[in-house]
Each structure stands twice: as structure tokens, then as C-alpha cells.
Design a protein that fits this description.
The complex is a heterotetramer, with two copies of chain A (about 375 residues) and two copies of chain C (about 325 residues).
Chain A lengths: L28 H26 L13 H8 L7 E3 L5 H6 L4 H9 L8 H4 L10 H15 L14 E6 L6 H13 L3 E7 L2 E2 L2 E2 L19 E5 L3 H17 L4 E6 L18 H8 L3 H11 L5 H24 L8 H4 L6 H20 L5
Parallel strand pairs in A: 1-2, 2-3, 3-7, 6-7
Antiparallel strand pairs in A: 4-5
Helix pairs in contact in A: 1-2, 1-10, 1-11, 2-8, 4-11, 6-7
Chain C lengths: L1 E4 H15 L3 E5 L15 H5 L4 E3 L4 H13 L3 E5 L10 H8 L2 H4 L9 E6 L14 H5 L5 E4 L3 H13 L4 E6 L6 E4 L12 E4 L4 E5 L3 H14 L4 E5 L2 E3 L4 H10 L2 E8 L4 H12 L9 E5 L10 H4 L3 H12 L2
Parallel strand pairs in C: 2-3, 2-4, 4-5, 5-7, 6-7, 10-11, 10-13, 13-14
Antiparallel strand pairs in C: 1-8, 6-12, 9-11
Helix pairs in contact in C: 1-7, 3-4, 8-12
Bound molecules: thiamine diphosphate (2 copies) and magnesium ion (2 copies).
Amino acid sequence: MPEEPEFVQLLTPEGERVEHPSFAFDGDDEMIASMYRDLVLTRRIDTEATALQRQGELGIWASLLGQEAAQIGSARALRPQDFAFPTYREHGVAWCKGIDPVALLSLFRGVDQGSWNPLETNFGLYTIVIGAQTLHATGYAMGVQRDGAVGTGDDDRDTAVVAYFGDGATSQGDVNEAFIWASVFNAPVVFFCQNNQWAISEPIDRQTRIPLYQRASGFGFPGLRVDGNDVLACHAVTKAATQRAREGSGPTLIEAFTYRMGAHTTSDDPTRYRLSGDLERWKLKDPLARVHAYLTRHAGLAEDFFADIEAESDVLAHRIREGCVAMADPHVLGIFDKVYAEQTEELAAQQAGYAAYLDTFETQTGAHA
Amino acid sequence: MPEEPEFVQLLTPEGERVEHPSFAFDGDDEMIASMYRDLVLTRRIDTEATALQRQGELGIWASLLGQEAAQIGSARALRPQDFAFPTYREHGVAWCKGIDPVALLSLFRGVDQGSWNPLETNFGLYTIVIGAQTLHATGYAMGVQRDGAVGTGDDDRDTAVVAYFGDGATSQGDVNEAFIWASVFNAPVVFFCQNNQWAISEPIDRQTRIPLYQRASGFGFPGLRVDGNDVLACHAVTKAATQRAREGSGPTLIEAFTYRMGAHTTSDDPTRYRLSGDLERWKLKDPLARVHAYLTRHAGLAEDFFADIEAESDVLAHRIREGCVAMADPHVLGIFDKVYAEQTEELAAQQAGYAAYLDTFETQTGAHA
Amino acid sequence: MSTITLAKALNDGLRASMEGDAKVVVMGEDVGKLGGVFRVTDGLQKDFGEDRVIDTPLSESGIVGTAVGLAMRDYRPVCEIQFDGFVYPAYDQIVSQVAKLHFRSGGRLPMPIVIRIPFGGGIGAVEHHSESPEAQFAHTAGLKVVACSNAADAYWMIQQAIACDDPVVFLEPKRRYWEKANLDREAAPAPLLSSKVVRDGTDVTVLAYGPMVKTCLESAIAAAEGGTSIEVIDLRTLSPLDLEPVYASVRRTGRVVVVHEAVVNLGIGAEVAARITEQCFYALEAPVLRVGGFDTPYPPSRIEEEYLPDLDRVLDAVDRSLAY
Amino acid sequence: MSTITLAKALNDGLRASMEGDAKVVVMGEDVGKLGGVFRVTDGLQKDFGEDRVIDTPLSESGIVGTAVGLAMRDYRPVCEIQFDGFVYPAYDQIVSQVAKLHFRSGGRLPMPIVIRIPFGGGIGAVEHHSESPEAQFAHTAGLKVVACSNAADAYWMIQQAIACDDPVVFLEPKRRYWEKANLDREAAPAPLLSSKVVRDGTDVTVLAYGPMVKTCLESAIAAAEGGTSIEVIDLRTLSPLDLEPVYASVRRTGRVVVVHEAVVNLGIGAEVAARITEQCFYALEAPVLRVGGFDTPYPPSRIEEEYLPDLDRVLDAVDRSLAY
Ligand SMILES: Cc1ncc(C[n+]2csc(CCOP(=O)(O)OP(=O)(O)O)c2C)c(N)n1
Ligand SMILES: Cc1ncc(C[n+]2csc(CCOP(=O)(O)OP(=O)(O)O)c2C)c(N)n1
Ligand SMILES: [Mg+2]
Ligand SMILES: [Mg+2]
């Protein structure tokens, strides 16, 4: 891997704001404070979910620890009509898109495979098959074009689409095809890659030998690297890229350079494949700490501001826990209703047959009630 | 499409040699003369095969008309141990790899699906599923690495692999994955893309909005564009790229900028989708004419040289025709033997059963003999 | 009433759907100016524009994957896969996304996508151009899989498939593209997901779909000369299967032969045989016999006619069935 | 004789093959330091180096496609697909290249590639991690498809698959990875492509493979208490099928139940039922009954135990068979 290139940074790990020739954060301290709240609450969602998994309430959890800024920064740049297509780790984006964190848990608990309405929330389903959603995003963006919702100058109409994916995903054919389609059709899509340095146990050098953002140049659209732990920079570059998309100037690849602070998922054991030294170094770049430092030092926010957020996050955690534990298992007969928009007779017959079969137990023992 | 970039050219359409800062043709006039022979004979193979298709002797034929220089130039740069993975149009490469042109026809005639031994000829099977062979090439190159046949300095040992594909193929996931694998493993593979401007009816702007050779930059290895109608330039750049591969310096993408002078295949009707003006312009850049001009004007070759080649090509054409017409249909029972290296009992039983079935006709009418 | 080729009937059907619903878009390789390699989309781009008839990059996963996104944006994409053998690069998007998204979303995301696939052999083509991939899609819950066998069905079925809110894999018998049939555009079409008795008979029931329907009808005519009465049923829908008419027939004939080009092993015939045996166990005079591809890849075209089920092989199976 | 888990048996088998043949290479996502998400390749990279145990880019088509090239260079690649649901991006390379290259090359290109796929459900996983894609591969001529059900078989079968000159799709019952069995490393193994009677019985023949073998054995034990004697056959090889032992059994019992996790519709059971009916028509007292997945995508894990065939559903089918 050659020397790491520059990235866009607007807030240093120490909490100092810095200038960048091309990008500026256009919000005020109040907005930074509100993003800080998002960062803290998102991390709290994550911590709580991880705990719930440890306690057997979830089957698995994919932690976003360390990636909060990349997600909050980018998602806060989206307008309501903008559509985001996530992987399975975009809890911060979900939060900004108004998804109830409890709803996020159902997939991981195993009670359903997605419990929000993508068409109402403009937030796609979590997608586990790596990279698949990038094509969906591109197709959606082509639909946006066909709807005339690009380049009209109407801020409430022009629509950008954001595809989230990881560093590992860049090796999938689908992701590269998405780059091609987006470029050829000049689709209003932003490819937001969180390069957290790892794809489960594989370091980034198994996916590329040059910095990932440069991939875009091969497809004919701009790519840039941003400090993925800097919420201001992530916001600024995403705002610029989505604006570009909305104007009809086509796709952008953003590589948010960050680090997966935790395990790949709760099933993973990173001690088998990575050194703790890395983790320690990255802790110094924590995405929350730097905003905290800035808000304290430069925005004059006092302890009660932070205490309020802490209190709010306690309430949230409590609500998540309650919500999770209360989540009932679905009835198995319900799955037959979900396969098709227009159920087939064949399936209806299977459903009836299985219901009758289950009834034999019910009358006998109540076992499957 | 932005302005077309420079390409490597060493012989102008008028037959004048020109210098290039980075690439030079390292052969003498004798070699140019022998490449001219290859060009003529390859074109003759193609003409003859097209005629055979028109006469019903072949089911289909994919003409290389216009792409002779790209193929002969690149393939003549290969050493015997170098392995080439073709599409379905690499008749010129096949020729240089020593494949009997008659053997090329069997697939198109429909008597088999490939009649040469890739392991003996170092020339892969024709591959119709677009792009699939680029991964095979990359895997083969990884095998070369594992055999220690890279970077030893032994010219007879160090091995390069060349994957041929078209402009359309660059949109397939597989091709992009091949770029990634080749780059990550630094595999000794050269990606030789003949950009003939068309994928059946689709012009190049359906696949990319920037020049194709630039795709490589996104993957971290060099890409360059060469005048695909200039056999000297194609030779020079391929020689350099394969040398680079053999030394262990990894992959290169070569975009040979050329033009499909004929239909996509004999089944195609290009008048439905492209203007004849283009064709006329490209005729002025014919890959054979310029070598002819050079050899006449600057290498002092006289009419008898060209007449000899004409005569040779007549003989070749005759041989191809004879060979094609003589190609017998296979026996249907033979297909059961080819499925597995270790035939299964199940298949043997199917074979026996079908043989017995056919026998009932044989004794009745001889129909299926 | 007009006489029309199957390819033109599809073209007319597509046109009717596009006229009826501005959200219908056609996408695929060479579907624009060229009108597709089989001319099924001929003239559509000229009349409906490049936004609705999209010449795509050469990537099948891209075709289907972007269709998912378009469907989420309320479009009804009709994807053309140029040949059967080229659907596999899109396989992941089809089985893990298209087929599952309605389910995974708890019913919130309809996927009104049609994936048109010219399928089967018999046209003298090179490898990968004569495949019969239908069983793989029929095995995939969440898809609907249909095959037309004649021009009239083609005209209606493509429109019904496009109107369906579920993903439909739409199989077109490419060797029959140029065959003509009468099309009555005023007639009420049969429901999309229904099989159809296309010839009445009393001795043996023969089941087929797509290109083999014609072969079986010809077999029935030949058999009639020999005094054997064959009932031919065009399955039309492969997932779900519509087997009630088949059971009714089998209860009368007691004998069944299933015919398809696809490999017999785990082909549609396997499922049909298993179900018929289960539903008509006591009515069967003979096991359900299957005629189809051997366990080999599709052979070189010069011998494809010997590989493909033909009149003789159908009749051979009929005879074997009658011999029980 | 030692007691060993199925996962460790595979690990030992891989190790033995790698020791025996320097051309055996293992490749896949996370197979190196991590040893695979199921630890099946644990320690192999440490001992055999990065050239023989290759952590690959995250691209399944790449894994299988480069394996083809490696095989052409005389290697014997063992590809790991991390979970069943992630094999589909590689589907095109598997069905159009790996399966066909021996045939297309006129027998000149052997494809000694093993594609290992942990398959099936029952581990409480999220979507795409519990699929049963075997029928699709078994339908594809040119592949061999096997499934191990216990540690001893796993140890031998993986070595036999690697030694085979044909491509083998090797299915591993992931919910059984941690189950132990006795392994006698000196015993002569059964041939790879053979089925095996794993419990003798006289009333009903129950067929299974992979994870369902254990379920069926438990059913047999339960049934025995009720006085019903079930013969259980582990199919082991799904393509080709080895049904002679099955026919022999059916001729004695007259009744068959086939069990798998995969969707019943066009699952292995369909083919097995069709063949048994054809071969043992007069011996059958009841139609072959099938127990397996409904025509739905794999459900959320909290209800997977109700979706998956279990002891009760197997016994229910046995009872229904006996009721004929
Ligand atoms: C097609 C496919 N192959 C394999 C997997 C298994 N898998 C799940 S996550 C993962 C690594 C993903 O890495 P990256 O894209 O960097 O995202 P991250 O998990 O780091 O956010 C893998 C291999 C999968 N989900 N999909
Ligand atoms: C996967 C796949 N999809 C579609 C096709 C049908 N097809 C055959 S050739 C071709 C165009 C190829 O264009 P290009 O790569 O530029 O090569 P050229 O024919 O111009 O040499 C297409 C679409 C195919 N063979 N394989
Ligand atoms: Mg990552
Ligand atoms: Mg081309």
C-alpha cells in the first residue's frame, strides 16, 4: 500500500476546526451540538444492542462502533426525499432517517427480516448480500431521473440516492457494475464507502492495492477520501456530493476512512487476526471525543448539555431494551402471506395444510400455540 | 465522451513509421513482413469462414475484420509458454498460437465446443459468456506465480497470461473482479481489450463515459491505449506489458482502439444501428493496408512477395474449405463420455439406454445411423 | 383475428402494456435500435423513447439489480436477458433480491419485475444459447415462472405478467419465435397462472410447456393415426403449477408422460411426477414417465435434434407407458 | 479411533489432502488467519503458507473463476463459500464454466475443483445464512454434488472430493459442525458417490442427507418405541444419485419418505420420488411422501424450528405413508 493520501478533515481528533480548500461545514454550533447528540445516541443504541445480544435477546449484532461520524455526518446531509440504501451496519443512518431503533433489532433478533417501510422512510432494507444494494440504489436513481426529479432546482423535488457499503464490498462485481451504470446514465447516486479497514478478518490489502476512493477515476466520476471519524467533514462532503447528484451532475464516490473498533459482529473474535495496537491508535481518533472537545472548548457548552444527552440516552437504552424483549415471535403461518403480493393458490393450500397439521398438536398438547 | 486521448502509434495509416517516447517496435523489416503475412492469412481465414457460413457450412461466424492488427500484433509478442485466454473472435491470436484454422471452425459449425487442447497450445477455449475468461486468466496467472514462473529472469520459464475481451465485456462484474484479483495478487496477467467501438448494436458510450484504458487506474495498475489498427504498436505495447508481467511487476490493461468493420456475427445486421460513414472513415485506417504501404515503400518488398502470400492464402482458404466440409458430425452417444473425467454409473446407464433406443431405429430404418 | 408470429405477438403485447402504463420500462442489451436479437422489442424505442426502452451496459446482474431499484421507485421493469445461458450472472440478484424482497420487507415492497428469457434449443446455435434454466427458478420461492408456447398466449401472457405485482420469469420458446398463430385480440385470455388442455384424448396424458407443446401436439396427431388417443396439456405456469386439470386428466387416462427440453434430472417433470403420483396414486396405471435432456450439457448444434425430445421419443414414452 | 467434531474432521481431512498433494490449495474469504467463520480451515494457513491457503477478495465469482484458471494450471483448488446464500454471485462461473469445461473441451480440461458450502438452517442466523441450494447444482450436468452428515463421513468425503478429477459441490451441514462422532482413520471409507443404510428397518424407508440424517435417525428411534420400524438411508451423493440401495429397501418396505430442508417443490425429493416410482412402481404401497421446506423463503430464525422438518413432521409423514 503506498503512502496514505490526504483526506478531507474539518475537525481534528483534538477537537480543533481546520480549513479545507474545497469543503466547508455549513452549519453552526447548534447543529454540531445536535449532531453530537446523534453520535452519542447512536453509540448508545449500539452498546445496548450488543448487550442484548450477549444476554441472548438478539441472535447477532453488527456494531458500528467507531463509524458513528461517517454515518451521522453523511446521513444528516440528506434531505427527506433522498433515499439511502444501507448494508447491515448503518444504524446511524437509520437513526437520522427516523427509523425507530427498536425496529432495527427485529432482523437481528430473528423475528423478521426488516420491519420498516422503505417506501415511507426512504431508507432501504438492511442488505446482507454484500454489494447487492448498490445496484438497487443505481436503479432507484434511474427512476428518479425518469421522474424528472433531478436538476429542476426545486430543493424539495430534486433527489439524491446514497448507497452505503464497506471496503470489502468494493470487490464484488455488483458494486463495480453499479459504478458503470451510474456513470453511463449519469445517475444521481452517491456511493458512500465506509472503509473501516476490515472485511471480517481480511485487511484492506485483500481488496485493493491503492486507496479505494481512486476506484472512481477508473469509471469516470469523482472520488474523494474523507476523515470518516470527522462528522463535520463527512457532512460537508456528502452534502456536496448529494447536491451534485441532485443537480444532475452524476455520481460521486466517497471513501470515509475509518476503523471498525469492535468485532465484525458479535459472532466474531478479532483477536485471532488483528493486533491490539491498531485499535489503541484509532481510539485516539474517536469520532465522539473530538466533537465533545470542540463543543466544550469552542462552543461553550457546559456539563448540563452533556448530562442531558446522557440522560436521554439512558431513556433510549431503556426503551430499546423494553422494546426488544417485548418483541414477540411471529406466527409461522404468517410467512405464507408474505411471499407474494398476489398469493398463489398453491401457497394458500400449503398454509392451510400446515395450519391443520399444527392444529393436531394444539388439540393434543398446545405445543405449537 | 470527452475528446479522445492520444494512443500509442508506431505506423501511421499511410504506412509511415513514427516514434513514441515510451514504446518502440523492436523487430526488423523481415519480422514486419512476416507479421504482414499473418495479417493477410488471418483475414483470409475470416473471409473464407464468412463465406462458409453464407453457404450453410457454419451455423454462425464472428468476424475479426478490422481487428487483425490488434490480434496479430499482441499475439506475436507472446512467448510459447505464455497463455492466452480468448473470446470468440480471436482468430488471429489463435493463428499465432498455432491453432489450425480448421479447428477454429468446429465450434461455429456445431460439431463440438472447442477442438484444440488448451493445455498443449497455451490457448484457452473460445469463451462466449462475456468476461468469464478474464477470471480464468487471472487464476491461471496465480498458478504461474505459485509455480515460481515469474521474475526468475529465465526467459523460457517466466510466463505471462493474456486475457482478451471486448469493450462490452468491461461492464461485466467478472472483468472488474479480475482486475481486482490481478491487482491484489500482482498476478502476471495482461488485460487486452479490443475496443472495436461496438457491443453488438450498442456503441461504446453504453459501457463507459471515459476512455476504457483509464479503468485500470481505478484498480491500481497501468492502462494504456494503443492504435489497434497498428500492428507494430500493438506488438510493442504487448511485449512491454507481458515483459512486465513476467518480471513480477503485475498486470497491465491495454486498450486496443479499433473498429469492428463487419457485422457482430453473421447473424447480425448492423445497418439497423450504425451509419455507414463511420465504416468509411475506418476503412482509411485499415490495419493491412498500412503495412502493405510500408513494406512497399520502405522495406523494398516487391510484388512477388505479396503474390506469394496471396498464393499461400489461396491454398489456406482451400484447405479450410475442404477441412470444414469434411468435418463429420459427432455421434450423439459420444456426448455421454465427455461430461466427467470419471464417468458416473448413472450416465453410463443413460448412454446405454439411449444406445438401445437408437438401435430400435437402426434395425427398423437405419434413420439415426 | 389476425395471424401473427410469436415474436411479433410479444412485441404487440409489450407495446400494449407500455401504452397502458407509463411506468412500464423495457431494459436489456440491444433492445433499442436493434430491437433485440430476436426483434421482440422492435420499434419500441423509436416510439417510447430512450428513457423507457433502455439499452443497458453489458451486465446482467446490473440489468436485474437496477430493475429492483426501479421497481422500488414504482416502475415496472421488463428485463430482457438476451439468451438463456446469460441469465446466470444475474442469478444472485434474481434469487436473493427479486424473489425475496417482498417477503423480506414483510410485504411492503412489491417487485413487479418481468424477466424475459428466450429459452431452449433447436435453432442451431453455439453453446450457452440453448439452455433450459426454468427448474432453477421454479425451485425459488418468491418467483412466478411461466412459459408461453404460441403466439396467442404470448400476446396475453406478457401483458398479464407485466400487470402482475410479483416478479415473473417469463420464458419464451425461441425456436418458435417465427411460428404463426391466430390471435383474437378481443377474446378474453385465460388467467396467467393456469394450465390448459390443448388437445383432448383418452389414453395417455402428455404434459409439456414452451417449445415442446408443438412437438407433443404433433406426437398426438401421429399417435392418433396409430389409434392411440393422447391428451396434451400445456402447463403454461411452472411456478406455481396448476395441476388440477392434470389430475382430472390423469384420473381418466391413468397414464402420464411429461416432456421438456431441460435435463430430466430435477427438471419440472420430477416435480410434476411426484405430485401426480401423490394425488392420483390409485388412478395411475403406470409410473409417470419423463422425456427430456440427458445429464449432459447441451450438445453441439449438429446433434441437437438427436438430443432434444422429438416426436419419436415422446411416442416411445407413450408406448412404454401403455405397456404397463 | 477418536471422537471428533464434524468441523474438525473436515479440518483434518483438508490437512491430509494438502499434505498428500502439494497442488491442493484452499481459497476463500477469511480462510486464513481466522480459519474460516466456522474454523474449518483453522491453522492451515499457518502450516501451509499464504500461497496455499488464500484469503481472497470479497468476490465469490472471483473465487470460483480464478479456481478454474488454477485448475488449468494443474492445481486442485478447494473453494470455501462462506455461507450457502453467498454462492449465487458465483453461480455463472459454476454452471457455465466449472460444470461445462470438461465437456466443452472434449474431455481435455479436467476441473478438479471442490466448492465447499456450509448449508442449511437451524443455527439461529439472519437471512441468507440458512439456504439449501443443492437441487440447483444437482440439476446441473457436469457437477458432482455430495453432502456429508457426520464427522466420519466428512473426514473421508472431503479427501475423496479433492481427489476426484471432476468438480464437486461439497455440502456441509452447518448445524452439525459441532457434533461429535467416532472417527477410525484406519477404516476403509465407502466410495464417495454411494448412499448408505444408516439404520435398518422394515416398515418404511426414510431418505435424508446432510443435517436431516440425524433428525431422521431420531425419528426412527422414536418410531421404534411406537412399534414402527424405519429404515434410514443417508443419500450422501445427490448427483449422481445412488439409488440401488434405496430401491432394494423400498422393495422390502413399500413405503418411502424423503426429507430435506430445501423447498419441497423441485427439491431432491422430487427427483428421488419420481425415480423410485418409476423403478419400484408395483412395490409401492403408498406414494413417496416428501417432507421439506414450504414454498417460502427461509423464515426469520425465531420460527425456523417450526419451518424446518423435525421429528414430528417426519413421523407425521411416516404415519401418512402407513395409512395408505
Ligand atoms: C456475497 C456475500 N459474501 C460473503 C458474505 C459474508 N460477509 C458478511 S460481512 C462480510 C465482510 C464485509 O466487509 P465490508 O464490506 O468491509 O463491510 P464491513 O462489515 O466491514 O462493514 C462478509 C465476507 C456476505 N454477507 N455476502
Ligand atoms: C454474459 C453474456 N451476456 C450476453 C451475451 C450476448 N453477447 C454476445 S457478444 C455480445 C457483445 C460483446 O461485445 P464486446 O465485449 O464489445 O465484444 P465484441 O463482440 O465487440 O468483440 C453480447 C451482448 C453473452 N455472450 N454473454
Ligand atoms: Mg469493512
Ligand atoms: Mg466490442
